[in-house]
Design a protein that fits this description.
heterodimer; A: 356 residues; mainly alpha; 69% helix; 1% strand; B: 294 residues; ABC transporter involved in vitamin B12 uptake, BtuC; two-stranded antiparallel sheet; 11 helices
Chain lengths: 356, 294
């Protein structure tokens, strides 16, 4: 009971802080961009971590599943009166109903999960890098299908989908992503989660201990994709428009790098590094992209795109020398934090005692 | 006759792009054969070779810039191996693959920074960029040159691997990493040379490919790279003639699909082929059967 309270109070405090911040700061502040996008990327990174870090299935199909989620959400929620202008080349499309936002978000998760289940049936038999390249291939196939003209009445071909409901407050992505991440944490701490970790550590040993490999891999793949679909829906809301073209393999790589920086097999690491990654790329390192003069001295190298170069060098250093990432496989826990401060205060007291 | 006139250009383009994929895919198949690593950065090395040519030919004559491009690409391939893969030799395979993805990200961002993200016009190389007419179908000379050059290079490479001491060392390393090390094969130099050969062929591939498509962007390496990898898997990873055959097949099929008016699916087709191959015959056409031991 006390433990639950200890976790709930900081979370409640966080939400109150966010709420207060929103009242104080102007809505155009960079902080909110980082918080919104960071929360969405946390969910995406954690769901990738569930697959790559906890189950040991090296999947690179993230962008494809995000695309399914984003499209499902957008298609289901565009208001009826906006459809003729959005689907202007396809006579208003064939879907003539609108779902409420929350139903649509869950639907996008379910659609993604069902498709992932079907894709998983054949390809989860493949091992390590063959699995990686096959999932990458499926992501590309999905992208091509969504751009196909013949499916235009549903997907609007390669044109933009827009004017679906979006969120304004930072609290929305935090709540949805927070809920999903909590569910993933509960899953990982359950007996299923232990089976996943056993598969990651040694497939053959896990099988010998009675873990049904095919079933558990399929389960991890489907559940992870469910959350990726929801993440895709949130991303669609954040971007306000959806188009299939940007969902390339490089998007998957970005999320993979976030997971690696945070530490494969650490949920809190993934969240932390998502916020760091987004904050660095959207906000803190922006100055590297501007040509700057100090007096009449032109600071060398600073020009558009330099930020990303610095960024990728940092990533390479982490990949090469700090393979564990920020957290390794450890989790951030409030207990440890409390204990740390308790110890310090005890030491301090002791120090004072000695001084006396 | 009319039939040939409308469809021959597609087939010719297919054969030519197939040859260019073949030159890239040899780099993949050799590296995978030895290190069991999908070298995601290989496609980007190919892209960097394209940019080098753009910048070098702006200030230097062609007889200097072409050798310099090849030299620079080889150097880059060697450096990537030295800096990003060698320190991770004892690490799990997943880490090396992530490192490869990191290098690919780095190269693309560097290219973006240097070029400002704009597509660059590839210089026209005299003679091979000229047009000729084959059976009443107009095409560039490079289309005809590519398959011939590819064949010659592949034959040379196969001879090198079959009949030289270095080739023997390479085959030994790809069979068994540790044992060959115990037998006195200098693994690092063998791997270094593998990367050098791979990058050399990628440089030549990029000269031919971009003479045909004429514009280079920071991401123009990733799709040909992935397709070349699929070709390598199709032919049976580790097998050089297999990679070549796979590349030609993919190039031709892709262009026939474009001919049929399904351009949206020309990329997706490659991946569909990959998935079918992996499911039906995971070792590819000429691959050796691998047996998992506990």
């Amino acid at each position: 009971m006390k433990k639950a309270l200890m976790t709930l109070i900081p979370i409640a405090l966080l939400y109150i802080l966010l709420f207060v911040l929103e009242q104080i700061l102007p809505a155009s502040s960079m902080l909110f961009v980082v918080l919104k996008k960071g929360a969405i990327y946390s969910l995406l990174a954690v769901s990738m971590n569930l697959l790559n870090g906890f189950t040991g299935l090296f999947s690179l199909g993230h962008a494809g599943f995000m695309l399914i989620g984003a499209y499902t959400y957008a298609i289901l929620t565009i208001p009826l009166e906006a459809r003729p202008s959005v689907y202007q080349y396809f006579d208003g499309g064939i879907i003539q109903f609108t779902l409420p936002v929350f139903v649509a978000i869950i639907a996008s998760g379910i659609v993604t999960a069902v498709l992932a289940y079907l894709i998983g049936l054949p390809i989860l038999r493949l091992k390590s890098d063959y699995l990686a390249i096959a999932t990458l291939g499926f992501a590309e196939i999905i992208r091509a299908i969504f751009q196909w003209d013949k499916l235009g009445p549903v997907t609007n071909g390669s044109n933009l989908l827009r004017s679906f409901p979006i969120f304004k407050s930072v609290l929305f992505p935090f709540t949805v992503a927070g809920l999903c991440i909590t569910l993933i944490v509960l899953l990982i701490n359950s007996s299923y989660g232990r089976a996943f970790k056993a598969i990651r550590d040694d497939e053959i040993a896990a099988e010998a201990m009675g873990v049904n490999l095919a079933k558990h891999k399929q389960l991890a793949f489907t559940i992870s994709s469910f959350f990726v679909g929801i993440g895709g829906a949130l991303l669609a809301m954040y971007q306000t428009t959806v188009q299939a073209a940007p969902f390339r393999a490089s998007m998957t790589y970005e999320i993979l790098l976030i997971v690696v920086i945070g530490g494969m097999g650490s949920i809190s690491g993934s969240c932390l590094s998502s916020f760091l990654f987004i904050a660095c790329s959207e906000w803190w390192l922006r100055f590297l992209d501007r040509v700057t003069f100090i007096g009449s001295f032109k600071v060398p190298l600073l020009a558009s795109g330099f930020r990303k170069v610095v960024f990728s060098v940092v990533i390479m250093i982490i990949v090469l020398f700090y393979r564990q990432g920020i957290m390794g496989t450890k989790e951030f826990s409030l207990d440890a934090l409390y204990k740390f401060f308790e110890k310090r205060s005890i030491k301090k007291h002791k120090g004072e005692d000695l001084a006396e | 006759m009319e039939f040939i006139k409308t469809h021959l250009p597609y087939v010719l383009a297919g054969i030519s792009v197939g040859g260019q994929y073949a030159l890239i895919s040899i780099g993949y198949t050799m590296v995978y054969g030895i290190l069991r690593l999908i070298n995601f950065a290989h496609g980007d090395i190919f892209m960097v070779a394209g940019f080098m040519m753009v910048y070098l030919s702006a200030s230097l004559p062609l007889y200097l810039s072409i050798p310099l491009v090849i030299l620079g690409t080889v150097l880059l391939g060697f450096l990537v191996e030295r800096v990003a893969y060698r320190p991770l030799r004892q690490a799990p395979r997943m880490s090396i693959m992530i490192s490869a993805i990191g290098v690919s990200y780095l190269l693309q961002n560097c290219a973006w920074y240097i070029t400002g993200g704009l597509a660059k016009q590839y210089p026209a190389i005299p003679w091979i960029s000229e047009s000729i007419t084959v059976f009443s179908a107009t095409t560039k000379i490079v289309t005809i040159i590519t398959p011939i050059l590819t064949f010659l290079l592949v034959i040379a490479l196969v001879l090198l691997i079959k009949h030289t001491k270095f080739g023997m060392a390479m085959r030994a390393v790809s069979k068994d990493f540790e044992t060959s090390q115990l037998m006195g094969v200098k693994i690092n130099s063998v791997i270094g040379l593998t990367f050098i050969i791979g990058s050399f062929l990628a440089a030549i591939g990029s000269l031919l490919y971009f003479s045909n498509y004429t514009s280079v962007t920071p991401t123009s390496g990733s799709m040909p790279g992935l397709k070349a990898f699929v070709a390598a898997v199709f032919g049976g990873i580790g097998s050089i003639p297999g990679a070549m055959l796979g590349a030609f097949l993919i190039g031709i099929c892709e262009n026939i699909i474009k001919d049929l008016g399904w351009t949206t699916f020309s990329d997706a087709f490659t991946f569909a082929l990959l998935i079918i191959i992996l499911l039906v015959k995971p070792t590819g056409l000429f691959g050796e059967k691998l047996i998992d031991k506990v």
